[in-house]
Amino acid sequence: MQRDRLAEFLRTRREALQPEDVGLPRGQRRRTGGLRREEVAALSGMSTDYYSRIEQQRGPHPSEQMLAAIARGLRLSLEERDHLFRLGGHAVPRRVLRGDHINPGMMRIFDGLGEAAAQVVSDLGETLQQTRLAVALLGDETAYTGLARSLHYRWFTDPATRELYHPDDHAVHSRQLTADLHRSYTRDGGRGRGGAIADALLRASPEFADLWRGHPVPGPYCVAKRLRHPQLGPIELQCQTLLDPDQSQSLLVYTATPGTESYEKLQLLSVTGGLPA
């Protein structure tokens, strides 16, 4: 670990990042450019004290998970992330298509959607980032660990996952999710995380195994959805998708047609945050 150079690198990147770059208001009291340490810590999902100690050369040896979180918080490019890992005394993460690192350009777009229901998802159904409204609408999909991080896996192994979706649409979702995983599996030759998810599902789910044998081909990535929200009841949504082919990640934005009951419910959810009114 190169403690002094690590601290200097973090400071330069923090000072170069403007509040507008991450969807934060500049405010009248901000005298200098760049982000504050507490803002970077919040964006990285860690305490201000922990981040500050690293930047002040008096902190602990950060883990790979902490460095990855800081890289996301500072909106680092893949090259900058690799440099951060080297300074932190860790091996550079493998450049796999499926990863937790989100393209800085994608993150800038995401940051501008703070009031929308939006999330960044890998091609294996792993939710990497959600807006507050997306959490209220769909639940915190970033909290899962292991194979359960993948919606593809949860859909076929956890019955509670399906409760959010209209029963008449379950078959369509099953086929779509299987097709998405089959595409990733074929692309990677059955190796990596996609292969592990597929192998586990073939053992655990007869429904998945039957669909898998049919070699399904994906249709539209994000079809219209009919949700059954636990507080607000039925909600019909459209989904727009922005694809980052370099990272095999998608930015999904859920909307409702203005003037409809679903639109009013989505507006209400943005105010209540999913709590009973």
UniProtKB/TrEMBL annotation:
Residues annotated as domain HTH cro/C1-type: 34-81
Pfam families linked: HTH_31 (PF13560), MLTR_LBD (PF17765)
Residues of the signal peptide: none
Domain of life from the UniProt record: Bacteria
Keyword DNA-binding: yes
Keyword terms: DNA-binding
CDD domains in alphabetical order: HTH_XRE (cd00093)
MF terms in GO: DNA binding
PANTHER family hit by this protein: BLL4672 PROTEIN, BLL4672 PROTEIN-RELATED
Name of the protein: DNA-binding protein
Species of the source: Catellatospora citrea
Phylogenetic lineage: Bacteria, Bacillati, Actinomycetota, Actinomycetes, Micromonosporales
